[in-house]
């Protein structure tokens, strides 16, 4: 079974993807981490984020099993990831890695921005997770503060809006809801309620 999950920053897609993978006993790939890992490597080398040749080389050597979510979750790496995510050649390389992961038995849950549209267009079930920008900024701010990072609600809200705008309007694989994806708006849902709603959608889709 392949479950495709897309949605904007801090909508809760990663949390749902991880929990759905546990529930249905399949693997999980947070594809955002692949973009973050390439961006972090470019930053560490002091290279410009537009250096596509080096970005592609980094992507070709990426080890999906050893991406450090703790380090890669840094707010500024998310911003850098969204800047390199406009590079078509780099996306091609990462998408082929992601497709290979998805197609390895017994299947997987992948979350990102283009899973239902580009990476797994034939997924058994697709979800597009959303929430208001304000709810998402509150969640991301709380998450950063609880991890000991500095964050203010206003600047996180600004950053999320800017990143969503870039992700939605880029030429290659923009973030968009696949026509056959189920929309789940979690603005008024806690994590448990959102998870139950997602399990119901997947269970129903797989029965029909
Ligand atoms: N429905 C929800 N209600 C409240 N907080 C949530 C909800 N879903 C996720 N969160 C919290 O919001 C933060 C961002 O969630 P995450 O799953 O990482 O989002 P994404 O993968 O879309 O960026 C995390 O701290 C997570 O625990
Ligand atoms: N499938 C994907 C996943 C992420 N990305 C890019 O990578 C950035 C970071 O993604 P992420 O999923 O880790 O970000 P959050 O939603 O966790 O904040 C996004 O803003 C996108 O620009 C993408 O273009 N395609």
UniProtKB/TrEMBL annotation:
One of its GO terms (cellular component) is cytoplasm. Keywords: ATP-binding, Cytoplasm, Kinase, Nucleotide-binding, Transferase. Its main location: cytoplasm. It catalyses: CMP + ATP = CDP + ADP; dCMP + ATP = dCDP + ADP. It comes from the Bacteria. Belongs to the cytidylate kinase family. Type 1 subfamily. This is Cytidylate kinase. It comes from Roseibium hamelinense.
């Amino acid at each position: 079974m392949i479950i495709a999950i897309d949605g904007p920053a801090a909508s809760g897609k990663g949390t749902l993807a991880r929990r759905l993978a546990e529930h249905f006993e399949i693997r999980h790939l947070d594809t955002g981490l692949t973009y973050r890992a390439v961006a972090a490597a470019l930053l560490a080398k002091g290279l410009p984020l537009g250096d596509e040749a080096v970005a592609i080389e980094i992507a070709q050597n990426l080890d999906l099993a050893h991406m450090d979510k703790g380090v890669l979750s840094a707010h500024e790496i998310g911003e850098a990831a969204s800047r390199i995510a406009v590079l078509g050649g780099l996306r091609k390389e990462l998408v082929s890695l992601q497709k290979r992961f998805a197609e390895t038995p017994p299947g997987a849950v992948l979350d990102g921005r283009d899973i239902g549209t580009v990476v797994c267009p034939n997924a058994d079930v697709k979800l597009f997770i959303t929430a208001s920008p304000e709810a998402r900024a509150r969640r991301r701010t709380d998450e950063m503060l609880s991890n000991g990072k500095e964050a203010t609600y206003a600047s996180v809200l600004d950053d999320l809006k800017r990143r969503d705008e870039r992700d939605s309007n880029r030429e290659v694989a923009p973030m968009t809801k696949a026509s056959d994806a189920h929309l789940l708006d979690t603005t008024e849902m806690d994590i448990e309620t959102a998870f139950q709603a997602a399990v119901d959608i997947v269970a129903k889709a797989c029965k029909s």
